[in-house]
Design a protein that fits this description.
This protein is α+β, with helices and mostly antiparallel strands and 410 residues long. Helix content is 30%, strand content 31%.
C-alpha cells in the first residue's frame, strides 16, 4: 500500500475529548474514527489489525472444533423472558418497540437465541457435544464509555457456545478452550493471566483473562510465585492475602480484561427446553458453557501496553503492515524497486512515497503508525548499496545490503 493513496491521514494532536491512550493513538494514526461516546468506526489501517486478530481467533476456535455462524442482532423478548433476563438485563440491553409495537432488544450476548436455535438440532446424546461461535457486533448500554475501544456501546465480540451431555465432557472442553485463549493472546502479542472470577449475569464462577496494566480498570490479586490470580470480587469474598494454590502472597495489580469463559450448566437449557435423550432413555437438559473475546478490546489492549511517546508499537502478528518503507531524496525508482521486491516476497509493506513531506514528518508518521520494521531508502544508504533498517521496539538502526533485506526481515 502506498501511503500517498491511503484513505486516511495522521493527526499531530490527540482529540481533546479522549482520555484513553488507545483512543488517542488509534485516532491520531488513522486507525479508527469516533462517531460518539463508545462508538467508533474502523478505518483501513484499523480494519487490517482487526482482521488479523479475527484470523487468529478463527484459527484457534476452529482448532477446538468450533463451527462459525452468524446470528441476528435483533432479540425476541419472549426468548429472553423465558430465562428472566429480559428484565434483569435492562441496565445493559438496549430495548425498544418497533413500528408495530413489538418489543425488541439488541444483543449484547447470545445465550438465549443460540439455546433456542439448538432445540432444532439437538435431541439425543448422539448429537453431543457441539460448539459454535460467531464474530459479531454487539450493543451494550454503557454509561462509562470513556476508554476508547476498551469500553464501547457498539463493539465486536467473538462468542463461542458449547453443548454437552455430561459435566465431565464440558470440563474437558472448557480446558481446551482455555488453552486456545492462551494461544490467541500469545499470538496477538499480549500476556494474559487466567483469573478466577465471579460469573455475574451468567454463572456463579467464571475465568477471566487479564492483562496486567497500570491503565486497567479492573483489579486482580496475583501470585508472583505460581501465577494464580483472582479478581477483586472473589478476593473480597474469599481472600486473606495468601495464595490458595501455594504459600505465596497475593499482590494487588490493575489489569485489563481481554476474555472470559463461563460454565453455564443448565441455566439456559432448562427454561428454554433444550433437552436430550440420554442412553438410558431419560430426558435431560443439555449442559452448556460460553466463551467471549472482544477483538476490538484486544486491539486496544495491545496499544495500551505497547507504546511510547512517539506512537504505537504493534506486535508483529497483528500489525497493519510488517514494514514501513520510507522514501527520501526523491529516489522514487530505487524505492519503488525495494517495494516491488518485498511485495513479491509476500512481505506486507506500507510505502511512504509522499513527495510533499519532510524526512522528519515521515519518521514521525512511521513511529505513530507503529509497524514493526522501518526501512529508509536515501542517497546515503544507496551509496553503500544498502538500506537503513530500524525495528520499532529498538533504539538502534543498522545498514543492511539491498540483496539481503528480504532475508533480514524474514
Amino acid at each position: 500500500m502506498k501511503l500517498s493513496r491511503l484513505f486516511t491521514k495522521t493527526l499531530r494532536e490527540a482529540p481533546a475529548d479522549e482520555m484513553a491512550v488507545n483512543a488517542k493513538l488509534l485516532i491520531r494514526g488513522g486507525f479508527i474514527s469516533k462517531v460518539m461516546a463508545g462508538v467508533y468506526e474502523y478505518l483501513p489501517l484499523g480494519w487490517r489489525v482487526l482482521d488479523k486478530i479475527n484470523t487468529i481467533i478463527r484459527e484457534e476456535m476452529n482448532a477446538v472444533g468450533g463451527q462459525e455462524l452468524y446470528m441476528s442482532v435483533f432479540q425476541n423478548k419472549d426468548t429472553w423472558a423465558a430465562t428472566g433476563r429480559w428484565e434483569s438485563a435492562k441496565e445493559v440491553m438496549y430495548q425498544f418497540k418497533d413500528a408495530t409495537g413489538k418489543d425488541l432488544g439488541l444483543g449484547f450476548t447470545h445465550e438465549e437465541p443460540l439455546t433456542s436455535a439448538a432445540r432444532h438440532f439437538i435431541s439425543s446424546y448422539k448429537d453431543l457435544p457441539k460448539s459454535v461461535y460467531q464474530i459479531q457486533t454487539k450493543f451494550r448500554r454503557e454509561e462509562r464509555a470513556k476508554s476508547g475501544l476498551l469500553r464501547g456501546r457498539e463493539f465486536l465480540m467473538k462468542d463461542l457456545y458449547s453443548f454437552h451431555s455430561t459435566q465431565e465432557d464440558l470440563d474437558e472442553y472448557y480446558e481446551k478452550v482455555a488453552q486456545a485463549y492462551h494461544n490467541i493472546f500469545t499470538r496477538a502479542g499480549v500476556k494474559a493471566i487466567r483469573t478466577h472470577a465471579s460469573g455475574g449475569l451468567f454463572s456463579k464462577y467464571s475465568d477471566e483473562f487479564q492483562v496486567l496494566a497500570d491503565v486497567g480498570e479492573d483489579i486482580v490479586h496475583f501470585c508472583e510465585k505460581c501465577g494464580f490470580a483472582i479478581n477483586q470480587e472473589i478476593y473480597d469474598q474469599e481472600g486473606d492475602g495468601k495464595c490458595s494454590k501455594c504459600d505465596g502472597k497475593l499482590t494487588e495489580r490493575k489489569s485489563i480484561e481481554v476474555g472470559n469463559i463461563f460454565k453455564l450448566g443448565t441455566k439456559f437449557s432448562e427454561p428454554l427446553g433444550l433437552l436430550f435423550t440420554a442412553e438410558d432413555g431419560t430426558k435431560k437438559p443439555v449442559i452448556m458453557a460460553s466463551y467471549g473475546i472482544g477483538p476490538g478490546r484486544l486491539m486496544a489492549t495491545a496499544v495500551e501496553v505497547s507504546n511510547d511517546n512517539r506512537g504505537i508499537i504493534w506486535p508483529e502478528n497483528i500489525a497493519p503492515f510488517k514494514v514501513h518503507l520510507v522514501l527520501l531524496d526523491g529516489l522514487n525508482k530505487e524505492a519503488d524497486q525495494v517495494y516491488a521486491d518485498l511485495t513479491k516476497n509476500h512481505v506486507e509493506v506500507l510505502y511512504d512515497d509522499r513527495e510533499d513531506k519532510s524526512a522528519g514528518e515521515k519518521f514521525a508518521d512511521a513511529d505513530l503508525i507503529g509497524c514493526p520494521v522501518r526501512l529508509v531508502v536515501s542517497k546515503k544508504t544507496l551509496d553503500k548499496e544498502s538500506i537503513e533498517l530500524k525495528y520499532r521496539n529498538q533504539k538502534d538502526l543498522k545498514m543492511v545490503k539491498l540483496s539481503k533485506i528480504t532475508e533480514e526481515i524474514g
